[in-house]
Amino acid sequence: MQQLTTNSYLFGGNAPYVEDLYEAYLNNPGSVPDNWRAYFDAMQHVPAVDGTNKPDVAHASVVASFAERAKAGPIRTVTASFDAEMGRKRVAATQLIAAYRYLGSHWANLDPLQRQERPMIPELEPSFYGFNDADMDTVFNISNTYFGPETATLRDLLNYLRDTYTRSIGAEFMYISDPAEKRWLQEKLESIRSTPNFSAEKKVHILDRLTAAEGLERYLHTRYVGQKRFSLEGGETFIASMDETIQRAGEKGVQEIVIGMAHRGRLNVLVNTLGKAPQELFEEFEGKHGDDLPAGDVKYHQGFSSDISTAGGPVHLSLAFNPSHLEIVNPVVEGSVKARMDRRGDAQGAQVLPILVHGDAAFAGQGVVMETLNLAQTRGYHTGGTVHIVINNQIGFTTSDPRDARSTLYCSDVVKMIEAPVLHINADDPEAVVLATQIALDYRMEFKKDIVLDIICYRKLGHNEQDTPALTQPLMYKKIGQHPGTRKLYADKLVAQGVIPADGGDKMVAAFRDAMDAGKHTVDPVISNFKNKYAVDWLPFLNKKWTDSADTAVPMTELKRLAARITTVPEDFKVHSLVEKVLGDRGTMGRGEMNLDWGMGEHLAYASLVSSGYAIRLTGQDAGRGTFVHRHAVLHDQNRERWDAGTYIPLQNVSDSQAPFTVIDSVLSEEAVLAFEYGYSTAEPNTLTIWEAQFGDFANGAQVVIDQFISSGEVKWGRASGLVMMLPHGYEGQGPEHSSARPERFLQLCADNNMQVVQPTTAAQIFHLLRRQMVRQFRKPLVIMTPKSLLRNKDAGSPLTDLAKGSFQTVIGEVDEKIDAKKVKRVIACSGKVYYDLVNARKTRGQLDTAIVRLEQLYPFPHKSFAAELKKFPNLVEVVWAQDEPQNQGAWFQIQHNIFEGLESGQRLAYAGRPASASPAVGYYDKHYAQQKDLLETAFSKLKGFILTK
Length: 950
Known about the structure:
Number of helices: 30
Radius of gyration: 34 Å
Keywords: Glycolysis, Oxidoreductase, Thiamine pyrophosphate
CATH superfamily of the largest domain: Thiamin diphosphate (ThDP)-binding fold, Pyr/PP domains
Protein name: 2-oxoglutarate dehydrogenase E1 component
InterPro entries: 2-oxogl_dehyd_N, 2oxoglutarate_DH_E1, DH_E1, KGD_C_sf, ODO-1/KGD_C, THDP-binding, Transketolase-like_Pyr-bd
Enzyme class: oxidoreductase
Strand content: 5-15%
Shape: elongated
Number of strands: 26
EC number: 1.2.4.2
């Protein structure tokens, strides 16, 4: 209330009226007159009486404050006569300041093409508040409302406000709820009136970056006519912004920066920011490439890394590989940053910085942007704030009218959901762009939150260099054709200021072209042979021959020790009675007195890995408990008194020197979270990174991540990943949505030993499978079709001894000792839960001439192991593939050729299962049951339908 109590017209006699207004305002700001609402709004941004920055003053303190004022009489030297008119003007001046903070960006000079007329905003005119020309020389004390001089005439105040909020920088931040953040931004902008004051040396450096940005594009345009490069021309100031971000981040202690961006300007960033040798880029334009990748990718999808010298020391830069799905790289970058933070023990992101570069249309249009923003301040995904840079060329892709591009005023409006401030800047004012960049980086480092730089520019050429934008944008491209270019404008400005000689700009252009002709680096200095102590050596995991085998057994004594640790809770910790039963049963399992269920097999795998030094990161929408209440990795004290306390994670208490175990119940997102975990896995090979879908079909919402990164990242970019996807799968009569994890989609993506698709059926199998993922000396994505009903099926249990010996079995042959191999004429091959249905059906039928073989690993197909199982039956005539899924789905069409390859001459292959369907499963339980019954009947009866003879 400091501002209220230091204004002379608010003396004690008026306190009840003002206090009533303020109470009404606290309850509902819209219930008070506009001028009082603006006044109270302004009070939110000045210190309170007690010196804090709390904006919402308690009712009682307001009463006390006014009561004291009433006793003390008028404030300062004010006479008892109340100057109502002067009081009104002071309120009006405060309202004017608030209006510019809220609305000034709408009047900012942001468009280099000057196409838009300034909108009518009466609130930004003095006359709106009753001021006239006679008031312009009235002096106001603005020390408590504006970060500038203590007093100012209305004329000067108006100039201050317009300089600060309506010139080349348009700031949006008043929607932020934290007063400290708002005051910080107000002070940064208002104290200098958003006007840079750079040295001549700094200005020349900015021109150098503009020259490099423009020079590269023009060089490529003349040397490689018509080739796609997604030119940055019109937005060259972006390179100056990137340079400033990196250099200033280095000064503030950042040691690693991960950059994500789509196509526009990417080649420019590679050469002029990361220091890729121009000669290497030229070779790519000329079609030269290495033979180390099976597929490779186009040049504007490529990533790169380098080490750059800054005033604060070396900074490692990584540009993430990115497909044409534009914004999908955002969560990948965030995941990579999180892994680097964890490796450094950098919980707040002081040493690692994510930078995301967006196009205006994609930033507004693609949903993964919102999903990624929603992760920003959550515990499991916080990366210390991201600097977002929008290369806003005002045209998007091919949209001919801005009204069709988005439904918001600005392309950046989506960030208001997390209250991230936005600085819109005119790209034709490079110094303003650099100043805004400094403020953005400082804000991120101070508050560890996201901030946006919206660099408003234009696109000189088409979406790509084979496009003719004037076909749909004739007016815009007439303006662009008349524009001399940002570099020329800024060079002329520096000449006029006497910073450079008249021919200085031209000499810089010529020098850059000479460097291009020589293929020299354009970033000085790029550090070679620098070794960061936190860097991960991927060499031990690369170029390794595929193998299914791995020594995954754990000694019995260690298994029992681990079991005891993960089934013990602190004495004063009260678990739920159901969980108490689970822990009791697991204790019995851990002593070898009962077969292990799936949850215990999984837990022992995790416990053995963290005890051996492998970290684990397990995330998903219900990862702690498990969707089907089988995991219970996080225990909750039933007597806890606070929602944010009273949990115990046994897997974090396996041993004193164990590796970290992290389990996170993620936000309700698939695409962003899965991409985040993929990014994490590509930066940390020694962590078992797992994403668990709530139901397997939830992976549908993340298909872009699966197609563009998980399945193909290695063959396109050489990016290895050991990411595990757990996808609950099983036909239990629960309808079309949550029956199938769509194994056919994953199998269709399989080639070149790019990933593993498995469907384990026992507790021992999941134990060995998870351990195999880390023990083997290579990293491949692993897709697990995890069960639902088998989680508690006693037949799927395993004795503890199976964990102390053996390994993951890609194929499990017939296990029933009653089956005589010589009498077997038919083998039913299957995968997953249907195996147990088949076993029970065989018991009922008493059909002992039929063996059942489980295919636990669908890809890579275990040819030798499968053929070896078939050879055990000398009189085998036919093999039937049985599956729960419809015929056009599941594994059948993807693996039938592999099964056929394992047959002997004269043997036949047939199919048993549900008929082809447009839906993954039927929705009526009785129909599901009828199909299940028919499936089992077909598997054991005379062959019909599709039959293939070798």
